[in-house]
Design a protein that fits this description.
Helices cover 43% and strands 23% of the residues. By secondary structure, it is of the alpha/beta class. The longest helix has 19 residues. It comes from Neptunomonas marina.
Length: 294
């Protein structure tokens, strides 16, 4: 079977954009041209690759199987371009998803020092969201706690810190070296999104001690959580280096969650040779010693 790059590009663009019209605009071609390429592909497989849904299309089972392969083609093109045009590697475009922007700001700065003409596209999200974006190749690098080894994934330890309770500066718990979940259960608590890694650690600490906490507020942002704490709405939670120190609140370690959480630089092994990814990881290796000691 001799697939053409035009067919593959049309197929990948349709998957990314969700319909033929947007795929055509993305590739700078006409909508009928996209339709022709998709029909060629479907004829080769003797099977539909897309099914129609409201305002667009979605992959069939055959289409999903094909996309697991074709989504690697853009990497192939970029690798060939880097080989043919070595100078282009000095101006990489790197897409990054991070669950902890504050922790990785020094890494971003170091990357720009090494590659001042580079472009960093940075997206913030929960750990699970960052992991999903990495697996779907929506980003090149993930910056989050990769607690378990995964097949096909490379990870580099970059920073470690612990879960803390965020309490007002004048709170009776503010000056303690650690605070227990039994103590925290006596106060109103502010929770994060259920799919956030911080909330996973909070739930684990309380469940492990069979303590039922009182939470009456849920916040999407750790920064909003800190403001809510300042205004007396309750006690929040954050990993200790995920928010900036502020005289209006104190961050007290949670005794039952004393295991260090390691933040990782994460990428797909199959993409290790991609110029932008390789450059970013090289800088991370150079800078991580100070980050780990910090």
């Amino acid at each position: 079977m001799d697939l053409s790059m035009s067919e593959i590009k049309a197929f990948n663009a349709t998957v990314k954009c969700g319909n033929y019209t947007r795929a055509a605009a993305d590739l700078g071609v006409s909508q009928p041209a996209i339709t022709v390429q998709i029909r060629k592909l479907e004829a080769r497989f003797d099977s539909a690759l897309f099914e129609r849904v409201n305002n667009g299309v979605r992959l069939t089972a055959t289409g999903q199987a094909l996309y697991k392969i074709t989504r690697q083609y853009p990497d192939l093109e970029l690798s060939i371009k880097a080989l043919a045009q070595p100078g282009a590697a000095s101006q990489p475009v790197v897409r990054v998803a991070t669950a902890s922007p504050l922790i990785f700001m020094p890494l971003f700065a170091a990357f720009y020092q090494h590659y001042p003409d580079a472009t960093l596209n940075i997206t913030s999200g929960t750990t699970n969201e960052c992991r999903e974006m990495l697996h779907e190749r929506e980003v090149d690098i993930g910056l989050y706690p990769a607690a378990k080894e995964e097949k096909g994934i490379s990870r580099l330890s970059y920073h470690s810190h612990c879960l803390t309770a965020v309490v007002p500066h004048n709170h009776e718990l503010a000056n303690l070296p650690t605070v227990s979940v039994q103590q925290l259960a006596d106060y109103p608590l502010i929770y994060s999104r259920s799919n956030a890694y911080t909330q996973y650690l909070v739930d684990k600490a309380f469940t492990g001690c069979d303590v039922e906490p009182k939470h009456h507020i849920h916040m999407d942002s750790r920064y909003d959580t800190c403001e809510a704490v300042v205004y007396g709405l309750g006690i929040g939670f954050a990993l200790e280096n995920d928010v900036r120190p502020d005289p209006r609140y104190r961050m007290v370690r949670v005794a039952e969650s004393d295991e260090e959480v390691v933040e990782h630089v994460v990428w797909l092994k199959s993409r290790s040779a991609m110029p932008g990814i390789r450059n970013f990881v090289d800088v991370a290796i150079q800078t991580r010693s100070s980050a780990l000691s910090g």
